[in-house]
Amino acid sequence: MARPEYFVFNDENVKNSYGFYINTLGIKMDRFNDNPVMLNNHINSNENVIGNWSDSLKENGLLKLKPHFDEETNLGKDVAGKVDRGYLKGCSMGIIPNWDSVQKVGDRLIMMECELAEGSIIPVPSNKGAIAIYSVDGELMKEEDIKSLCLSVTEKINEIPENLNSKTDMNKIILSVAALMALSFKDQPKDGLDVADVEAKVLGLSKQVTDLTAENAGLKLAAQTAKEAQEAAVKLAATQKVDLAVTQGKIPADKKEAFVQLGITSPEVLQTTLDSIPAKQNLGAGVIVPGGTGGAPTVATMEEFQKLSVGDQLSFKADNPNEYQKLVESIK
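That's the HK97 family phage prohead protease sequence above. Prediction below.
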């Protein structure tokens, strides 16, 4: 027979031998995870450590763990063999209970919280009701002491109304302490609160939630609008600076978008970068072309011709041979 992959530590739908159920989600694992010891039949001694557990899994009301036997010891090997051969099929969890968490739900007495201390291989599976209970100082409690505690807790719970949220009559309702605080009631009469008063409080809270939700949505919209306006202003300022730099010849037009993105990311860095780039010099500035609108200059006398630069003289002679000939003849 193959060794089971998981052993069931707890089934919250099965009553244990002491008459109560244990809420699986309420089983705290912190202490156990630090030392996930596997004992032989809850005997807390070094020689009865026969392995450990791993991969705890809580699902469908069950707490399950994977077994790992220490087969280097005779006892561990012996117990592992009995498990493999199908003679031992169950385990039992040792817990430190939280008796204050015990609640009566319908006809069930449920321990809502406890702390897992160890897991033992035993002849009777834990999902059939076998558990071991430890005191807060880690000592295994005697069965008669546990039964006495269970009886005491049961008597205490029976003194409380079976359902604190149930209606006592058609017009009265009893609330839990938490509900009283949430609805801002100062106290609760013994026969319960008027249903109309409770409903009014609930409706008031509902309206507050609706109003706050609407206000929050408005604030989010305003914040988004302000953010978008600020981003648009930053982009416009960056674009204007970059356009001016392109006009001044500081940067080429095909690099405009990259500089705009730089300005959006950091306006200060953009400004520093543009300030460090010299503007392109206009080499044609200050050149005077006598007459005309371009090309070779026009002159009326040889005196004006001689005032031209050598380059302009050559241009004039090449572009206006007839006019140049007249100038030459005018000085003969």
